[in-house]
């Protein structure tokens, strides 16, 4: 349900997609860093 709204945002505002994608990638990198730290 949120995916469709996001897709519409991508089509209407390319710069918003770039920002959201950059934000998501940073979250993924942070999550990986946290998981690696937790596992030792």
Automatic annotation (TrEMBL):
Q: Which domain of life is it from?
A: Bacteria
Q: What is this protein called?
A: Uncharacterized protein
């Amino acid at each position: 349900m949120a995916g469709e709204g996001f897709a519409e945002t991508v089509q209407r505002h390319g710069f918003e997609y770039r920002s959201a994608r950059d934000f998501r990638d940073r979250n993924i990198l942070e999550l990986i860093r946290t998981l690696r730290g937790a596992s030792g």
